[in-house]
Design goal:
The protein is built from 14 helices and no strands. By secondary structure, the chain is mainly α. The model has no long low-confidence stretch (mean pLDDT 80).
Amino acid sequence: MRCNKKEHGSALNAGSDVNTDLALQLRAWAKKQSALLMIFGAVLLGFLFPAPARLEGLVSLDTLTTIGIALIFFLHGANLAPKVFLSGVAAWRLHLLVQSSTYVAFPAIGALVYFAGEPWLSADARLGFFFLTALPSTISSAVALAATAGGQVPGAVFNASLSNLAGLLITPALIALIGQAGDTQFDVLSAVIGIAKIVLLPFAVGQAARPLIKAQLAKYKPFLSAVDRGVILLIVFKAFAETGAAGTWSRFSPADYLGAMALAGLLLAIAFAALPPVARAMGLKDDEQITALFCGGTKSLATGAPMAQILFAGLPSVGIIMLPLLIYHPAQLVLGAAVAQRYAERRSKAAAPV
């Protein structure tokens, strides 16, 4: 039985259209997830090519990352508008919930895992999970998700900014406390001095320079965002390259890697499940409940990666310490985007005429 040429051509065209649509969908997905894919790429490169971690001198990774960290915090300081920050001050119950979640509830879970997990996880793996729980919330992601979902944006800006500023002191203090109580030695004074020089001072200089350069910052915003992402990728690459160069990966058991993934996922699930009912019980308004979820349930890679380089400088296991954060970060973005979209759809249905 012969196939009609016209029908055969139509079938070929249909197959070609399907392939084209699939390619376009994959390209669109890759573009949307480009930030996450680049993080995974930096991790993979650090695994495969650890040699740059051994370089010394002016072009060493240590020098480059130190300059990069100072640069991004200068830009963060220059980009923070004091008026926007202060406009969200009044909602004190929202601030209490977000900051308590960030620096009390999360670290309490981290401490429980740190001490109770000793029979199953190495000290470095447990320290990495506690480090994740002690970090401040995201800034841009939390504000963007809150805005998409219909949350209180000034409250999101205030809490995310306050969380990151407070974290410059609170995070190293928490790490020091857990180190003294456990088996990890940690010099909190040196860490605070290092953070003050590399993070806090550039941030303050950026704030002071803001009136002079804010117009230029707005003009070159895409380029500056690329610089910010590039420095984060460099820090991630450096952490994993250093761990590989020291031959440290083989010291850890499969339980450490599986535990990091499972604990990060469980922590995210607990945060997103617990914060909404707690916010309702505290009498927060609907838009404040949304802001509490995205500011109180996220952890910052932009702040965490530079802080890890300062707090754990010289440790060959910095890669495993950062692993829970690198798992939590993309997971919170994926889950956060889905939840924000759900809130937005619910708001649209409620506003639609009956």
